[in-house]
Amino acid sequence: MEDLQKQIREPTKEQIAEYKEAFSLFDKDGDNVIDIKYLGLLVRSLNRNPTESELEQMSQEVDPLGHEKVELPDFLTMMASRPEENDPEEELYEAFKTFAKDKKPEPTMRGNVLKYIVTSGREPLTDEEAEDMLIELGVENTTEFKISDFIRLIVSNMNNY
């Protein structure tokens, strides 16, 4: 069991190289130290999407004494202790698939179900925002659509920001 945990936590050589390369882009003078203010940008450049709370935890982890600096070894240790994030597109697909009317062969959903979901969550959209989303998706309340089409729309809009 311990070997399995070690295996899960240890980044691959490729990941370490990727972390070092990303770090070097922020390390202008090559001393393996960057300003803490770049930590969020650095982590996000590695396709991670931490919340502000998680970034604060990361900052404490790499700079417990508050020197406002991040050293490369501390950064590598911090990244190794955090599991790789899943593909957000896949996570969205799996989440919305649970609400699908028909799961075979391609999960579908009605517009009114989607509207209910997006206006009822922890960070709900307004009715107007939900209607705009349905219009952009090209569906009405009773129209069925493929969940994969909806996920592609969300991801393409996220990439535009």
Description:
The chain is built from nine helices and four strands, in the order H-H-E-H-H-E-H-H-E-H-H-E-H. It has helices at residues 2-9, 13-26, 39-45, 52-62, 72-80, 88-97, 111-118, 127-137, 147-159, and strands spanning 33-35, 69-71, 108-110, 144-146. The model is unreliable at 1-8 (pLDDT under 50). The chain folds into two domains: 12-80, Recoverin, domain 1; 88-159, EF-hand (Recoverin, domain 1, Orthogonal Bundle), CATH 1.10.238.10. The chain starts with a helix and ends with a helix. Helices cover 57% and strands 7% of the residues. Helix 2 (13-26) crosses helix 5. The strands form two sheets. It has a two-stranded antiparallel ribbon with strand order 1-2. A two-stranded antiparallel sheet has the order 3-4. 14% of the residues are buried. It has 161 residues and is mainly alpha-helical. GO terms for molecular function: calcium ion binding. Keywords: Acetylation, Metal-binding, Repeat. This is Calmodulin. Residues 14-49 form the EF-hand domain.
Can you describe this structure in just a few lines?
The protein is mainly alpha-helical. The chain has nine helices and four strands, in the order ααβααβααβααβα. α7 packs antiparallel against α8.
* The CATH homologous superfamily of the largest domain: EF-hand
* Tally of helical segments: 9
CATH class of the largest domain: Mainly Alpha
Q: Briefly note the structural class of the backbone.
A: mainly alpha
How many distinct folded domains? 2
What is the residue-averaged pLDDT?
A: 85
Low-confidence stretches: 1-8
